[in-house]
Amino acid sequence: MCALLAVRGAFGGPVDLVMSGINPGTNMGPSVLHSGTVGAVVTAANFGVPGLAVSMDAEEHAPDEIFDSAASWALFVLDNTDLGGPPRAMSLNVPGLPASEVKGVRATGLDATPGFRAAGVRTVEPLASGGRLVSFVYEPVERRLDADGDVAAVRSGWASLSWLTSISADEAPRGAWREGRPTSLV
């Protein structure tokens, strides 16, 4: 929503670029569909403004050096990307390494899986209001990685740069849907 407000002028003059992140934890494979970090730049691109989402393979309590590394690689990507032409939504995933240990940046596709799946939820903390703070419980997915995918790149020490397009409607498969009205309405 902040990206939408920004590109519509809620915070001042025109916006040339939307950057989102640095997100602790990667947004790779199909997990980009659930990412607010990535969603911000896809929203911006849908409204004519390019964007870069930055995520890193490290937790929120990672040392400053790891956040600095992700920031350095994000600046490298911006300095080496032609932002002219149609607006682009880009997702950068940086290994949780010092900048000098990252091998470089690779253009990648999205792997079929980020290498894990949500296996359930657990209560992290009961809240005074009676609610609870919960988190996902993840389990690894063992399989052969796509060599050109984002997961393989990050696991082998490369930063992964993927270009994304918006979600758009598709035609319903023939026979999958029958128009009509219910016989009775409540």
Automatic annotation (TrEMBL):
Pfam families: SurE. Residues 2-110 form the Survival protein SurE-like phosphatase/nucleotidase domain. GO terms for molecular function: 5'-nucleotidase activity; metal ion binding. It catalyses: a ribonucleoside 5'-phosphate + H2O = a ribonucleoside + phosphate. Keywords: Hydrolase, Metal-binding. Its EC number is 3.1.3.5. Belongs to the SurE nucleotidase family. This is 5'-nucleotidase.
